[in-house]
Design goal:
Elements: H1 19-38, E1 44-46, H2 47-53, E2 63-66, H3 72-80, E3 85-87, E4 94-99, E5 102-107, E6 109-110, E7 113-114, H4 117-122, E8 124-128, E9 131-135, H5 138-147, H6 157-166, H7 172-179, H8 183-194
Parallel strand pairs: 2-5
Antiparallel strand pairs: 1-2, 3-4, 4-5, 6-7, 8-9
Length: 206
């Protein structure tokens, strides 16, 4: 199977959104998160909202959560049981959930590879608009971001913004090992290093 190129929530949009803009999306996200929590479906917040929750640059345009592929059916059943609309897009690595005119992408395969228990295990519980939910580690967020870069999607601005705002939370060595085969990732990390955005000590905790 081909890995996704640019997962939802990782586009080249950089404007800051207002509270009025994001509250409907947050409400949809919280509804999905609570449903998954109540049914004990392991998940983690991903994408721009995860970056923002960790103190990163405001890039909240889409709400993404990640789950294991083996839990897709259980997650769909749980969400449909809350009378949420579950939509199947053409892509085979996610499904979408609609709530109040907004949608949440439920992803089981990132550009960096399938979502696994190790990735979910590295997530940290954080409060997102008063709802506690697991949030992907800064290291995994950066790996996923870098892995999505191709010759057709090679905007380094959001990558540099993420590195600048989350660098103290990122294990740079782990990022470099995970993305070492990608010339685009190597170029982005090299530029970040040249700009002094990466920590001198690469043994940072996630």
């Amino acid at each position: 199977m081909a890995a996704p190129v640019a997962p939802p929530g990782w586009g080249a949009h950089h404007e800051v959104m207002t509270t009025d803009d994001v509250q409907p999306i947050l409400d949809a996200l919280k509804t999905v998160a609570v449903a998954l929590k109540e049914e004990s479906v392991p998940f983690a917040l991903a994408g721009g909202y995860a970056v923002y929750a960790r103190g990163g640059a405001d890039s909240r345009h889409d709400a993404d959560v990640v789950i294991l592929e083996e839990d897709v059916h259980r997650a769909r059943t749980a969400l449909k049981g809350r009378e949420l609309e579950v939509v199947d897009p053409p892509e085979d690595w996610l499904f979408k959930v609609r709530h109040g005119g907004e949608q949440v992408d439920v992803i089981h395969r990132l550009a960096s590879g399938p979502v696994d228990r190790a990735l979910l295990g590295r997530a940290r519980e954080m409060s997102v608009d008063s709802v506690v939910m697991p949030v992907m580690s800064a290291t995994d967020l950066l790996v996923s971001k870098l892995a999505a870069m191709t010759e057709h999607y090679c905007d380094m601005s959001p990558v540099l913004s993420m590195v600048r705002s989350l660098r103290e939370q990122v294990d740079v060595g782990m990022v470099e090992r995970a993305t070492g085969d990608s010339p685009f990732a190597r170029a982005a990390l090299g530029l970040a290093r040249d700009l002094g955005l990466l920590p001198e000590d690469e043994e940072q905790s996630t």
